[in-house]
Amino acid sequence: MDPLNTLGKITTPDQAQNLFKLKLDSTQSAKIARIKHPDVRIRIANAIALCRPSKIFINTGSDEDKDAIRKIALEKGEERTLAMAGHTIHFDLAGEQGRIVDRTYYIAEPQDLVSSLANRMPPEKAAQEIEDNMSGIMENLTMIVGFYMRGPVGSPVANPALEITSSAYISHSAELLYRNAFDDFDREVTQKGYFFTNVHSEGLNRTEDLPHARVFMDRKYQTTYAWKCTYAGNTLLLKKGNHRFAVDKAVYQDRGRELSEHMFITGIGGPGGRTTWCAGAAPSGCGKTTTAMAGNVFIGDDLAQMWIAQDGSIRTINPENGIFGIVEGLNVDGDPLLMKVLRQPGHEVIWSNVLIDENLKPHWVGNMEPAPEKGINFQGEWHQGKTNDKAEPIRMSHSNSRCTLASENLDNFSPEAANPEGVVTRIFTYSGRDADTMPPVWVAKTPDAGVVIGACIVSETTSTEVGVTGIKRAPWANAPFIPGALGDYMDAQFKFFNNPDIREPFRPVMAGLNYFLTHRARGGDSGKLLGEKRDVKVWLAWLERYAHNEVGYLCTPIGNLPRYNDLAGLFGQIIDKDYPRSLYDMQFALYTVKIIQRIELQEKAYAKEENLPEKLFEILAAQKSALLDLKKKIGDVITPDYFENLI
């Protein structure tokens, strides 16, 4: 049962055309006439029939259409202009400052395989909820229809997608984050044989409606539905909603040949002016944008689609064309290129849920700038010292405050982002927020061990999800977006990185990254980082040299670690910083008890899953056994000199 076509009741191109004649004015009719594909036209017609908008705007991606969308956003009050030209502010409701994971569902039959980490609802019940909530939801509103490619036009792993929404803010965001492909849409849909559909409406946008907000994902018909919500993570479903469909495609249609990942893409400079491309996974709010910007050239900070090309290399594209980035902690010291875009004129930026002062300038926690005495944020008027009804301080900005901008504005943006053939990717990293256990960087000895690093990401929860707290496992930083069984996804990872079509010169380096290690975890009494944010440039530079066999390493049970002399040289060369041996010893000592506990956490959690590849447990068991032997022989803490003496 396809809810959209069932509820809309449009089944033929003629019926779609009759509805367009009835509902669209002459200007919009002329635009929709340029879209010929019958399935696309029927899908749009059914969204119109279901939501019953008062007006319909077909967005062709022209400058005129983009200006019209921005104007609608301002007229509706979804955005407000700020002091800097091209900058606007959007506020989500106070109760919707992140993904509403508790109200997000897959539409699935009882026999359908759905991730154990996800909510599900049978089609009949879901269709009833969609009908009850979306029928007529766009009355007195304008429906905006956009035609996008999730990736460069012509790329074999780019996805065509419709974005149908009554929110001009969401449509405006889509224009910054994705490639409007109106002129190429018919051809891409015909060539690929599918397209994604996204239908959203904020409705009346009232606090009392938030308990009834929903996000539905229909994997069978590759359609998302969202209502009574505005936060882009819930509503701009070109992003994480369609990412789930792309994961599905990689796992169930192209297993072992494609992957769709929650990863940044950055180019790391090496000797002789070479660039080595790296893709890296990190849960939202765990420094993914910062790491992406630490490279010399930038393609993306959030999503990556990859495949094995005919030359035996792994190629990667970014399905997006912009940044929807968390701004908390963003400052000139750690993120100078992004701050240049945000603080200097000449760029279009949508801010969300930051503080706006009386001079219409945005502020946020961690920007290392003087804080204003007062302003307006997502919950209304704010002033220094303001507290809530529990006498708790109210922060200047929400910890999930965002900025939305086109990547081409960044000084280090690479034109390779537009290459449909992707970039040859030699390095894959996996990281979370780990304050006390793993070293800053370690490399898997085999592709299978690399897959296990990705499977074993652990993170503190962040404000990107509403109502979620504590420490949690975050497999591949992609677990919230894996629609099917976790075992199937894991099997796809093992098959991809062991694919015999990957030729030896292109065998990837798979590594763990962790720059959240604290002094307290290594015998100190401070919660400050054991190092600096900018050190990630050195960890990436070392991985780049490792990929080209230009540095040595220490072989340990968890993987290969950097040697001190290599790192000391890179610290001086890359960021002009001394790197004392004492800091190296603290950062790269193996705390066996903590690592063993981390392994046992994974073993216990994965034991509850069905049909997981046995390789996972074999690798974890081997690592634990080797660590136990070392603990018995050397002690709880193994410093790097032990492994140096084995060389």
The Rg value, from CA coordinates, equals 25 Å
Secondary structure: helix percent: 25-40%
Shape by Cα distribution: globular
Q: Compute the average pLDDT.
A: 95
Structural class determined from secondary elements: alpha+beta
The number of helices is: 20
Please render the helix and strand layout as text.
Layout: H1 3-8, H2 13-23, H3 26-32, H4 38-51, E1 55-59, H5 63-76, E2 80-81, E3 87-90, E4 104-107, E5 119-121, H6 123-134, E6 142-150, E7 159-165, H7 168-177, E8 179-180, H8 185-192, E9 196-201, E10 214-218, E11 223-227, H9 232-235, H10 240-252, E12 258-261, E13 263-269, E14 275-281, H11 288-294, E15 297-300, E16 304-308, E17 314-317, E18 322-326, H12 336-343, E19 349-352, E20 355-356, E21 362-363, E22 374-377, E23 380-383, E24 402-406, E25 423-431, E26 441-443, H13 447-455, E27 458-460, E28 471-473, H14 486-497, E29 509-513, H15 536-547, E30 554-556, E31 559-561, H16 564-575, H17 581-588, E32 590-591, H18 592-606, H19 614-633, E33 637-638, H20 640-644
Parallel strand pairs: 1-6, 3-19, 4-5, 4-10, 7-9, 9-11, 14-25, 25-29
Antiparallel strand pairs: 2-3, 6-7, 6-8, 10-11, 12-16, 13-14, 13-15, 16-17, 17-25, 18-24, 19-24, 20-21, 22-23, 26-29, 27-28, 30-31, 32-33
Helix pairs in contact: 2-4, 5-7, 10-14, 13-14, 13-19, 15-16, 18-19
What structural keywords apply?
single chain, 647 residues, nine-stranded mixed sheet, alpha+beta, globular, 20 helices, 22% strand
Task: Write a short abstract of this structure.
This protein has 20 helices and 33 strands. The chain is α+β, with helices and mostly antiparallel strands and 647 residues long.
